[in-house]
Backbone:
C-alpha cells in the first residue's frame, strides 16, 4: 500500500503541478483529524510520511496504567500488551494502527480533507500563476460564443475564461478557433476557483501592443506618457523620446507604417493618433487636438485645469470631431477641460470687449460720477451742502410768506 500511496503523490505532483511536500502536509493533517474522531483521542496521534524511505505510519501513544481515568491518553496493561509485548505500567505504549482498518467515518474525513487540500493547492498555484499576468497582454484562443449574450469562452494556458460582450470591441466578430490578444485587468478570487478579468477595450491594451511592436518603447527609449481611448473607434497616445536622435512618432509608425499597421489590424481598424508629448501644457494641448490646426491656447487661471483654444473657422468641426470625440479624447489625454472656439468668434468677442471699454472712457464726467464710490467724508460734505441749500430755500420762503407789521396811527378812538 505504501508504494501505491507514494506513487499517487508523484502522479499528483506531475499532473497538477502541486509540490509533494504541500500534499504531505495536507494529508498528515487530514489523517490526524480522522484518527481523533474515530478513536476518540487527544493530541497524541503521530503520522509519519517519509517519501524518501517509503515509510508511512500512523500511531497513537498512551500511558499504561492500572486504572484508566482518562481514556483518551491512558490504557490498561492487558490492552497495551496487544500492541507491544514489552509494555509496562508507568511507561508509554505506541499503538501502531493499520491504515486499511480505519473506520468508515475516519476514511471519509481523511478523503474530504485531502480533496480540499488539493483544491486549495490548485487554487493557490493558479492564483500565483495568474498574478504574474495582471496588467499584461496574452494570447487567447476562442473556444465558443454564446449566441444569446455574445460572451466568448477563451482558453489561456489550458484554462478557460469568459470574455464578456462589453469587454469586446464593437468591430469584433469572433469565431471558434480565433486567436486574439486580450489585456488581463485583474485576478478574480472566487470561492471555488480563481479567474481572470480580461478585456479588449481597456486603454492599456493599446500600450502593450505598442510595446510588442515598437522595440524603442519596450527598452524605455520612448516613453508612453498618456493614452485616451474610445474602444473600436479612436485612440490618442502621447509619446516622448529620451534620446534626441530618436523620433518618437517615426519609431511608432515604423518603416512604411508597418508597426502601426500591425496594431490597427489587431484592433480591427481602430484609428490611432500618435501625439508628441510636451512638458509645456499649451503646446501639449495644441498637439493633442491634432489633426486640427490650433492658432492659440490660453490657459485659464484658477485651480481647475481649463483652457480656451482658438482654431481657424474651417477647422472648428475637425477640432471638435464627430460627436465631440476629438475634443473629448484630447481632454482625457491632457487632463484639461478644453473650450474650443473659432477665430471669427474670438475676434467678435475681442471687438465687443474693446467697444465696451471705449464706451466707458467716452462717457461724460457727470454720468460717471457716483457717490457710492466716493470716500465717506466726501459723501458727508455733499450731504451737508444739500442740507444747507434746502435750509436756505426754506428760510427764504418763510420770509416771503410772513405778514407785514401794522402801522401805528395817531387817531383817537371815537
Residues:
Amino acid at each position: 500500500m505504501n508504494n501505491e500511496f507514494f506513487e499517487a503523490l508523484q502522479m499528483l505532483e506531475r499532473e497538477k503541478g502541486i509540490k509533494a511536500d504541500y500534499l504531505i502536509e495536507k494529508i498528515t493533517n487530514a489523517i490526524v483529524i480522522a484518527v481523533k474522531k474515530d478513536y476518540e483521542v487527544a493530541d497524541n496521534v503521530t503520522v509519519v510520511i517519509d517519501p524518501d524511505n517509503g515509510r508511512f505510519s500512523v500511531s497513537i501513544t498512551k500511558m499504561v496504567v492500572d486504572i484508566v481515568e482518562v481514556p483518551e491518553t491512558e490504557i490498561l496493561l492487558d490492552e497495551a500488551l496487544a500492541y507491544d509485548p514489552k509494555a509496562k505500567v508507568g511507561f508509554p505504549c505506541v499503538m501502531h494502527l493499520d491504515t486499511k482498518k480505519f473506520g468508515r467515518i475516519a476514511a471519509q474525513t481523511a478523503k474530504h480533507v485531502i480533496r480540499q487540500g488539493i483544491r486549495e493547492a490548485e487554487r493557490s498555484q493558479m492564483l500565483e500563476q495568474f498574478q504574474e499576468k495582471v496588467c499584461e497582454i496574452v494570447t487567447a484562443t476562442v473556444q465558443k460564443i454564446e449566441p444569446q449574450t455574445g460572451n466568448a469562452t477563451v482558453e489561456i494556458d489550458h484554462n478557460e475564461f469568459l470574455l464578456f460582450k462589453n469587454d469586446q470591441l464593437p468591430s469584433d466578430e469572433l469565431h471558434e478557433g480565433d486567436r486574439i490578444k486580450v489585456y488581463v485587468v485583474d485576478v478574480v478570487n472566487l470561492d471555488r476557483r480563481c479567474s481572470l478579468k480580461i478585456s479588449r477595450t481597456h486603454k492599456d491594451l493599446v500600450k502593450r501592443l505598442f510595446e510588442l511592436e515598437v522595440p524603442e518603447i519596450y527598452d524605455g527609449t520612448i516613453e508612453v506618457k498618456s493614452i485616451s481611448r474610445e474602444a473600436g473607434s479612436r485612440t490618442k497616445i502621447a509619446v516622448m523620446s529620451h534620446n534626441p536622435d530618436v523620433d518618437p512618432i517615426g519609431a511608432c509608425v515604423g518603416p512604411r507604417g508597418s508597426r502601426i499597421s500591425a496594431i490597427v489590424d489587431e484592433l480591427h481598424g481602430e484609428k490611432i493618433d500618435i501625439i508628441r508629448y510636451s512638458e509645456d501644457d499649451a503646446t501639449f494641448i495644441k498637439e493633442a487636438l491634432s489633426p486640427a490646426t490650433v492658432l492659440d491656447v490660453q490657459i485659464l487661471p484658477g485651480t481647475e485645469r481649463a483652457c480656451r483654444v482658438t482654431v481657424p473657422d474651417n477647422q472648428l468641426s475637425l477640432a471638435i470631431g464627430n460627436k465631440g470625440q476629438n475634443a473629448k479624447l484630447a481632454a482625457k489625454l491632457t487632463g484639461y477641460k478644453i473650450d474650443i472656439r473659432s477665430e471669427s468668434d474670438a475676434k467678435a468677442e475681442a471687438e465687443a470687449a474693446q467697444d465696451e471699454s471705449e464706451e466707458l472712457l467716452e462717457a461724460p464726467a457727470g454720468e460717471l460720477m457716483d457717490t457710492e464710490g466716493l470716500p465717506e467724508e466726501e459723501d458727508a460734505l455733499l450731504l451737508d451742502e444739500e442740507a444747507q441749500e434746502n435750509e436756505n430755500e426754506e428760510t427764504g420762503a418763510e420770509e416771503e410768506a410772513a405778514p407785514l407789521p401794522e402801522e401805528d396811527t395817531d387817531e383817537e378812538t371815537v
About this structure: Residues 368-383, 397-414 have pLDDT under 50 and may be disordered. The two ends are 171 Å apart (CA to CA).
